[in-house]
Amino acid sequence: MKLNLKLPNPGLDERIPSHAELEKLEVEEAGERPQWDNKAQYMLTCVGFCVGLGNVWRFPYLCQSHGGGAFMIPFLILLVLEGIPLLHLEFAIGQRLRKGSVGVWRSINPYLVGVGIASMLVSFLVGMYYNTIIAWVLWYFFNSFQDPLPWSQCPVNENRTGFVSECERSSPVDYFWYRKTLNTTPVIEDSGGLQWWIVLCLFCAWTLLWVCCLRGIETTGKAVYVTSTLPYLVLTIFLIRGLTLKGSTCDMQTFLSQGVEGTGLAFIVFTEAITKMPVSPLWSVLFFIMLFCLGLSTMFGSVEGVVVPLQDLNILPKRWPKEAYTGLVCFVSFGLAIIFAQGSGDYWLALFDGFAGSIPLLIIAFCEMMAVSYIYGIDRFNDDIKFMIGHKPNFFWQVTWRLVSPLIVLLIFLFYFITTVSKELTYIAWDPQSENFPTLETKSYPDWIYGIIFILSGVPALVIPAVALYKLIRNRCCAKEEKHTTKTKNVNIKNE
Q1: Domain residue spans in the chain?
Q2: Annotated binding-site ranges for Na(+)
């Protein structure tokens, strides 16, 4: 397949370094630029970013709710035809231009700066709620040093005549999650106030992340030896132990069939299984250490996805070191993430999870592939990859980058947008006053929530054309002003 379509892109050669200049920079900056100690650190960092908390609390839920094993067929197809080609493309173009998300797209074409800004906004929004899950993990971790575990039995009521009614009507693990941890309100409109224990855990989560990112890859590069490997060791231990328990093949399906949410999978299903194990506090500590490591590895990449573009945009003082940018991002994120520490925090987190990383990511992915293939130029890109690794990409990469992957993303976006707009949006609520309690109740969002949904999914996506339009207007105005200035100078010279 030979598609040589390339859109006009004047000035590209002046905006990007040549291969000879790259070789020279590599020698000159070898001692100054932060580097990984070895290839293992780099690979573990990539694995840690790609495999995170979502693989434990979100993916199994999505898999079960969309057909179980059948869900894996389209998932694997899209992984091969969409996920891996896009990952390869982003790594390659970033390495070639040696810049962050904003700098890369500015170099390709100044009108594409919005793609980098949109990526930064998505990383910021996703990082806010992801680190909230880490805060919940820390809360459970702190409570794991008790025997028996606090979610293994119902607490006694105030009159000491029996157990708390809400716990008796549900289960100890449900009660500890929805009441003792989240103190969940029955509707999203009722904030329920701040839960101080979650605020403290949230502060610890952002502080720990800031400390780990403080010295860049000098710290995170060593941290990934633990954060990216320990989870797999613990998961292997849990797998072996789980297979030896009686009825191990039925327990997970039983819980999922009862309608447990994505976060509930980690904090209800797994915690219930832990209570059935001998020396359950030990297993609980290991499990939440595993979740913490998974989340921390992912957050390293999320924070970098905000800090580096901020530096490229030059909207803050240039004298600020990277550590100051990291601290600012963590501080602002913590302040805004307070919304998740309310009694309605779980509903807000589900809202962010459903919309912050859906439509914007599809549009960003489409723009990236089209920009590299048809604005930067696929032939130039092939030569760049040959320069970096010694050979050009094979036929598979050519077909996916040029045609298959952009087409798939476009079709998914259109289908998702049409189905989302045409249906009533609902959320799952824990309401002890409902007739079907303890079954989670499906409720409709209030009308004002649609404004929040637009901010989460619409604003990052609209940044791309908005920035391009701003650049176009500014360039036109500057051109007219420059033309007017030149004409005035010529007149003055002529008069003199």
Answers
A1: 12-495
A2: 48, 51, 55, 257, 294
